[in-house]
Every structure is written in structure tokens, then in C-alpha cells.
Amino acid sequence: MQIVKITSVVALTLSISGCGQGGGISEFFGYDGPEAGLPYRASLSRAEEPRSFTVSVTASEATVDEVRESARMPATRHCLETYGGSDVNWVTDPASGEWAFARDGEFMVFSGRCTVR
């Protein structure tokens, strides 16, 4: 009977630890979120036009292919959480068809827009 009580307390503690502020059980086990495995640090800024945004990636010497996932992750999360869909229309370079970007010091800055379902 004692083992059942202890098991119940542990199960309840683990289930509650994921609620509220902080990382809960995932933080306890060292999981830092979906961006933890990405090679470059990225931050998203909303633009004045609805659904539009920019993503700045810290990658001074990198190529578009090298930073693509680091830029895609915050954009997908933003669109999904804000507009209910994960699709993004990225601004592309008409000549190459690749994502267009601007270099700003050590940052590569990409622009995109969340699509409507």
C-alpha cells in the first residue's frame, strides 16, 4: 500500500510540473525547446503589416542553406500560434529563387508572411 501512495505522489508531481511558468519536467531533464538543436540563434520581429515578420539569424559567414532551419523554426511557431497555420511565404530573390536576405553586421535578415488557410 505504501508503494502505491509513493507512486501516486510521484506521478502527480510529474504531471503538475509541466504546468505554469518555467520549463517543468522538460527543463529538469535538460530539454531546452525545439531550437536547442539548431546551429544558429534566430529572433523574430513582427512587421507593421499583419502576418508579416522578419527573422534575424546570427550567422555572419553562413549561407542560406546553412541557416534555413534556424530561420524557419521561429517563423513556423509564430504563424502557428498566432494565425493557426504553419505555412510561410518567404520573400525570394527573383534571380535565384532562394530566400532573399539582407546582411546586417553579423545577422542575416529574412522576411516572410504567414499564409491564410
Question: Major beta sheet, specifics?
Answer: 5 strands, antiparallel
Radius of gyration (CA) equals 20 Å
pLDDT average, as an integer?
Answer: 77
Structural class: alpha+beta
Low-confidence stretches: 12-36
- What is the straight-line distance between the termini? 54 Å
Overview features:
117 residues; alpha+beta; 2 domains
Q: How would you describe the overall organization of this protein?
A:
The protein is α+β, with helices and mostly antiparallel strands. It folds into two domains: 31 residues; 82 residues, no CATH class. It is 34% helix and 24% strand. Strands 1, 2, 3, 4 and 5 form a five-stranded antiparallel beta sheet that branches. The longest helix is centred in the middle third of the chain and has 20 residues. The radius of gyration is 20 Å and the shape is globular. About 21% of the residues have low confidence.
In short:
This protein is α+β, with helices and mostly antiparallel strands and 117 residues long. Helices cover 34% and strands 24% of the residues. It folds into two domains: 1-31; 33-114, no CATH class.
Itemize the secondary structure elements and their pairings.
Blueprint: H1 2-16, H2 24-28, E1 41-46, E2 52-58, H3 64-83, E3 88-90, E4 101-104, E5 107-114
Antiparallel strand pairs: 1-2, 2-5, 3-5, 4-5
